[in-house]
Amino acid sequence: MAGVANPSDQFLAHYGVPGMKWGRRKSTNNASASAMKTHTPFAKNPNQAPPRVKGATDIRPKHVNRMSDVELRNRINRIQMETQYKQLIEPKTAESKSKFQTGYDNFEKGHTAVKKIIAVGKTVQAIHKLYNSELVKDIRKMLTEEED
User: Fold this and answer.
1) Considering the entire predicted model, what is its pTM?
2) Is 132 strand, coil or helix?
3) 3-state secondary structure 105-118
4) Is 62 helix (H, G, I), strand (E, B) or coil?
5) Which residues have a Cβ under 8 Å from the Cβ of 27 and sit 6 or more positions away?
6) Distances (CA, A) of 67 to 51, 56, 78, 80
7) Mean residue pLDDT across the chain
């Protein structure tokens, strides 16, 4: 039986490293877990908003008497910058709204005009139908006979 190979030579088995999680790689350097790069909340999503900074961006403001000069100055600067930003942005959005609004207004005006024209047409059609009816023809004959 020299031609038959050992069955253990044809089978490859791998059981991984004990304690290793699937899909995770070992670090290439032998640094401990605490020395490795710490997780930051912005690593996955760079578009995520930064954390709130105390002071100028607090939701519940302090009373003015309890604020330092720096905190008060930061708040005033922030409020002024927000109002300037809104003033710069609003004209652009107001123009687009006004264009839409004027277009919609023109559509409404045209729609009401068409409804009025159709109503006038129906009235003219009804008058024409009445004028050519047998009853009105008989009334006209009677009126022309009385005049003669």
Assistant:
1) 0.31
2) coil
3) HHHHHHHHHHHHHH
4) coil
5) 36
6) 21, 10, 15, 18
7) 76
In terms of Cα–Cα distance, which of 104, 61, 101 is closest to 79? 61
pLDDT, one tens digit per residue, over 7-21 is 666 766 766 777 777
Q: Would you state the pLDDT for residue 48?
A: 63
Length of the chain: 148
Closest by CA to 57, choosing from 71, 70, 46, 45, is 71
67: Cβ contacts below 8 Å, ≥ 6 apart:
61, 75
Backbone angles phi, psi at 61, to 5 degrees: -70, 155
Distance, in Å, from the CA atom of 54 to the CA atom of 62, rounded to the nearest integer, reads 11
Q: Please report which confidence band the pLDDT of residue 122 belongs to, taking 50, 70 and 90 as the band edges.
A: very high
